[in-house]
Design a protein that fits this description.
The chain is of the alpha/beta class. Helices cover about 20% and strands about 25% of the residues. Strands 1-4-3-2 form a 4-stranded mixed sheet, covered by helices on one side. It has a 4-stranded mixed sheet with strand order 5-8-7-6, covered by helices on one side. Strand 7 and strand 8 form a beta hairpin. The longest helix is centred in the middle third of the chain and has 13 residues.
Length: about 180
């Protein structure tokens, strides 16, 4: 089986409207009109610049739902990671997450620069910028074995705020 990317994820949420608003207003997702006729309690969202049919399916299970205990007392998914093109976009996303009270942390994994957020139901996600293949050096590769503090300003000085991430790694290198 030759998997080459994640097409979409489906999340159970307690309040559909609140979750749609969060993913729309904070992360820029747009609602895709594909909910079956007569079906209530679901929404399908597409991330900005995505070529997927949809990136998120949200299914409401009601306000009485408990927060996920995955990783604390039950098995389950820890998080999903979405990739952004530039460090400037990663920095702008950090500001939007912080303003929404949804920024849970950040880290430098050497070859990836990551933000961690939580949606209104506490479901965690990662927003990541990948060092392009032609910029990978011994320091970046060695740093994959540790979790360091992310200094976005220093990373933008090192790589450039508008350098497209993931080239030759997650997306084909330009000819």
């Amino acid at each position: 089986m030759g998997i080459h990317r994640l097409n979409h994820a489906v999340l159970y949420v307690s309040d559909l409207g609140r979750s749609v608003a969060f993913y729309r207003d904070v992360l820029g997702f747009r609602r895709v009109p594909m909910t079956p006729d007569g079906f209530r309690g679901a929404a399908f969202l597409q991330a900005p610049d995505s070529t997927n049919d949809h990136d998120l399916g949200l299914f409401e299970i009601g306000a009485g739902a408990a927060r996920s205990a995955a990783g604390r007392s039950t098995v389950g998914l820890y998080h999903l990671a979405w990739e952004v093109d530039t460090l400037d976009e990663l920095a702008a996303t950090a500001q939007r997450l912080a303003a929404a009270g949804a920024l849970a942390g950040s880290s430098d994994h050497g070859t990836t620069k990551s933000l961690y957020g939580r949606d209104p139901d506490g479901l965690e996600f990662e927003i990541v910028w990948l060092v392009p293949a032609d910029r990978l050096d011994d320091d970046a590769l060695a740093a994959r074995k540790r979790i360091g503090r992310l200094d976005l300003d220093a990373e933008r000085r090192r790589y450039g705020g508008q350098t497209r991430g993931g080239l030759g790694v997650s997306v084909p290198a330009l000819p």
